[in-house]
Amino acid sequence: MASMTTYLTVATVLSGLNILLLVLLGRVWVRNYRQFGTPLTLGLLGFAVVLAVENLVALAFFFSMGMLYADSATAQLAVLAMRGLQFVAVLFLTVVSMR
């Protein structure tokens, strides 16, 4: 495994946190779908699954192909920014869904 920079390390942690929040959201939305059966809840569940898979793929790339980002601090910062924005969005969704 190539050594990770601070940017990629933080991006990796954010991907892990995104997965945890999406699992939590998925559990809430499965329960709501069983109770109410609305298509919107099923759509939210599908969203959580797709985004969790995307984060799992990102983690795989961070650990197995970190060298793709190794030569460019700009690319590393962009990856971190996208993971950070995604984390903020999923966190907002989690807070709203838990109320």
Automatic annotation (TrEMBL):
UniProt key word Transmembrane: yes
Record keywords, A-Z: Membrane, Transmembrane, Transmembrane helix
Protein name: Uncharacterized protein
InterPro entries xrefs: DUF8036
Organism: Halobacterium jilantaiense
Transmembrane segments: 6-30, 42-63, 75-96
